[in-house]
């Protein structure tokens, strides 16, 4: 799964790398993005790339006001066409979330230990995602796939990650889902690296550069 991630690069870097045409005036880097927070997403609209904020945790448009509903932070790639929450979104509501790392928790000496996964070249990347609007609120979910070998030592799932512009462009296009679903696969092992970080990332209240600093494990 993916329940915490980072976006630490500057606004200028984001605009340049993702070829963004419209970007929100307000932007803050985050070292510990968590569910229920507003997250930076990118959509292809009228041949333009528009960035904006959505709430992380999907609430489908058909959920009635007042109904108890647990927001969906992750969507399994292999279930997108089966689940009612997602199958109506895969054609017209594909987006990406901008990131440069994500956290997962493994075990070390009998205790949970957080690790950060990043691209081997430390570059930005994109999570494949879907969005919907319920009432006046727009929400989103990150698509996950089976873990590659690097991640599987910690967790059996990982977010679908796009490193290349060709992947991003195709996912954001109006191509039928049938033509783009092959993109939903694990990132190759040789394009990722992992390192342990402080347990301070356990709390979303902690959001500073210390969250991403590498620590030594005893």
TrEMBL record:
GO terms for molecular function: lyase activity; peptidase activity; single-stranded DNA binding. The keyword Cell membrane does not apply. It is an enzyme of class 3 (hydrolase). GO terms for biological process: protein-DNA covalent cross-linking repair; proteolysis. SUPFAM superfamilies: BB1717-like (SSF143081). Its EC number is 3.4.-.-. It holds the Pfam family SRAP. Gene3D superfamilies: SOS response associated peptidase-like. Belongs to the SOS response-associated peptidase family. This is Abasic site processing protein. It comes from Falsibacillus albus. The lineage of its organism: Bacteria, Bacillati, Bacillota, Bacilli, Bacillales.
